Amino acid sequence: MQSKIAASMGMDTAVESMHQLRFGKQLVPEMLKELLDVYGTSGWPYIEEASYKLLIEAILNKQQGSAEDKVNI
After folding, report:
1. Which residue ranges does the record assign to the WIYLD domain (predicted)?
2. Tell me, what's the pLDDT at 73?
């Protein structure tokens, strides 16, 4: 099981990495929480794998869904 300190460091690193790609600092923790709900705290290796590809895809899918919702209003 991953310690809270390690999880916090993972969160901070992910937020900073995604911020460099111009993803909002509020959106990233929300998406990480959703991914960790699915993968559990042992899911960090999957999230960090391939430079956060899983996280980026989740964010883009959410943004695409939000854009489609606005079009359908």
Report:
1. 11-64
2. 60
Number of domains in the chain: 1
User: What is the DSSP-derived secondary structure letter of residue 2?
Assistant: -
SS3 content of the chain, % helix, strand, coil (to 5): 85, 0, 15
Contact 41, 7 (CB under 8 A): yes
Q: How far is CA 16 from CA 9, 19, 50, 60, in A?
A: 11, 5, 16, 17
Q: Would you say the pTM of this structure is higher than 0.85?
A: no
Q: How far is CA 55 from the centre of its chain?
A: 4
Question: pLDDT of 15-49, one tens digit each?
Answer: 999 999 999 989 999 999 999 999 998 899 999 99
